């Protein structure tokens, strides 16, 4: 009954619903593609595609490497919806705006939410290119006043004070490990995701701090997971480690240029281009595992 939903959600839902064929008017799963992982959408068949700029209530993603389109279609015999490019808090969108699409997906019937992202590796046992199943998160957005659920509670979606004890669904995580094994992927890790607002990357001191509380660090996913959990979705998050995070102390003022040179000190760098490049290289693997995961889910 659409009359129970707030107008902005209804407008968006109707806009999409009217343009979809019957077999896509309800979906089982929603997928969000992270940086460099847009090709995930290429496996989807019988697609209907929308530009974010045309969808009422959607923001427009502005980051290079994040295209902005919403793809409905069939993946492994399942109707799905896929965000190719997501919204980030650092673009200036509120946490509510960033996670708006998640509730739309719930209205379309999606029970399962697959969130992918590119992230920096903090855990020394990780390597660039590893896939990490998110077991839990620490969201600096959520405890610094940018929780997406701040504001009037939309009780049609969920309760005022939602528990966050099982945000990343155990059963889905288990099925994902099965999917990865069936794809002969052997570098699967599991860890805690630290969510920052960005856009600046972490300092070495921040990185050392984060490494005591988590395994990967990124600028997305937690808002969508929070909203997905609120409206009763089963969430799974996957990080692709696109760079290992530098945790070395910065230069000491006690050291002369000669001492520094003698240590072969190299100024650390990290770039968005690197993040996108690793994403693109590894997208194929993740694509295959997500497809297999969808197939396994269909049978369970
Ligand atoms: N996304 C990819 N790498 C990252 C890093 N090192 N920190 C935050 N977000 C990232």
Describe this structure as you would to a colleague.
This protein has one domain: Nucleoside phosphorylase domain (Rossmann fold, 3-Layer(aba) Sandwich). It is built from seven helices and nine strands, in the order αββββαββαβαβαβαα. The chain has helices at residues 7-17, 95-107, 170-182, 204-211, 222-230, 257-262, 272-299; strands at 29-33, 45-51, 69-75, 78-84, 112-121, 131-139, 189-195, 216-218, 234-244. Strands 5-8-7-6-9 form a five-stranded mixed barrel. Helix 2 crosses helix 5 (222-230) and helix 3 (170-182) packs across helix 7 (272-299). The longest helix has 28 residues, at 272-299. It is globular and about 70 Å long. The model has no long low-confidence stretch (mean pLDDT 93). Residues 118-120, 196, 201-202, 217-219, 242-243, 245, 270, 275 line the site of adenine.
Rg from alpha-carbon coordinates = 20 Å
- Low-confidence spans: pLDDT under 50, at least 5 residues? none
Number of strands: 9
CATH topology (fold) name: Rossmann fold
Counted by DSSP, the helix tally is 7
Strand order of the largest sheet: 5-8-7-6-9
Distance between the termini: 29 Å
Question: In percent, how helical is the residue content?
Answer: 25-40%
Major beta sheet summary: 5 strands, mixed, barrel
Summarize the structure.
The chain is α/β, with parallel strands linked by helices. The protein has helices at 7-17, 95-107, 170-182, 204-211, 222-230, 257-262, 272-299; strands spanning 29-33, 45-51, 69-75, 78-84, 112-121, 131-139, 189-195, 216-218, 234-244.
